[in-house]
Design goal:
heterodimer, A: 338 residues, alpha/beta, Peroxisomal Thiolase, Chain A, domain 1, 2 domains, 12-stranded mixed sheet, 14 strands, B: 145 residues, mainly alpha
Chain lengths: 338, 145
Amino acid sequence: MKKLSGGSIWFETPLSVSAFASAAGPKENDGPLSGKFDFAAEEPCIGEDSWEKSESSLITKTFGKAIEKARLAPSEVDFVFAGDLLNQCVGTVFGLRDFKVPFIGVYGACSTMAESLALASVFISSGLGQNAAAITSSHFCSAERQFRMPVNYGGQRTPTSQWTATAAGCAVVSPKAQPPYITGATFGTITDMGVKDSANMGAAMAGAAYETITAHLSAHGTHPRDYDLILTGDLGVVGSGILRDLLHKDGVDISNVHNDCGLLLYDLERQDVHAGGSGAGCSAAVLCADILPKLQCGELHRVLFVATGALMSAMTAQQGESIPGIAHAIEFTSKVTN
Amino acid sequence: MNVTKKEYEELNKSRSPKSKLQKTLPKAFVAGGVICAIGQCLLMLYRYLGLEEETAGLAVSVTLITLSVLLTGLGLYDKLAKHGGAGTLVPITGFANSVAAPALEFKTEGYIAGIGAKMFLIAGPVIVYSTVAAVAYGVVYALMK
């Protein structure tokens, strides 16, 4: 493991994602990734009596499934890096409560999956164990009541708003064995472009995505054409456009290789999600349900996963503060040279 | 960063889709109009049934509020409001929805800290500032008298 420029890290000996699992709500499982999730809820409440419990249930199911696939008992998981959008990360705390696993709570808003994966990779790369899990969730209803309005309130969403996904994803990082491999990571810097509209998260986070992608490419000496896919999450329509414009100004064109988790999870027209999906679980579920399987079977060879987060609270937004963004990147490959 | 905050704002503007006013305004107009027409029909019905004008007006409000709360509880009012916009927001039905929705949403936190404390989360500011406006109006009225 070697520290490169900025917040970049290169894993000289790559790591493996030994298992992964995902869960989704009914709306998410009705989208383009339908049928790819390990668990798909039939009702948003997932049989629970509060939205917070529903979100925790996503975590419990996803983590349970991931360690089952990795053929691990909870006691064999050395560390769990996990977080969600709720205050004090209660979604993950209550969801992991009964597993009795060493738990490290992580908050990076919607960038939490990449942040957790990067931390898990650093731990395993340092020789601090054999299995470190990264897990992240979000739930539309628990996020709405915390950040916005009650679900039944008759308000209108603006065209730039994004839909918080009811979803979760979990990946277990282990020493190098089989694909997908993790070869690098970049921890991003807090980037505030002065956007104050909390109904336009994509715009608030696109600047951070630009900074992290630029830092990662520069530190690793790579170019967008070296990747099959640069996957941001979740910039949606607006943020993706701004990111491409920003890179274009530097003479870098990513349009052929860029996609966004918020655009992959839903059918934008049919599912009425306006500018796309968002939420910590969106990028986690898209990664674990769609991207990691493709890397595993060799359909994708090199992917830069850049999860983006908006580091604001409902209170700072009401106080008129702008929305600081953050983005963390993880580089995956399907093959490594020995 | 290769742009200033000002240039970023311009980029954001050029990439952000705007509300389709040619679609949303007529829909709001029709939705609001239909709710008011229902109110008028109810008024005529109650008058026909023999209620006094003032009592009939009150009965119309009560009926519309009940309908709105019922639709909120059934999860239908927000679906109507998605299309109705200000048309479903401004009439008394919108106000009833704004009280019923948090009452439903926060029932998981109990009767006191949940329903009781959060019921007027959205309607509270409307009540506060309309009371303030009423006081100001009262003072002006008293001075002019």
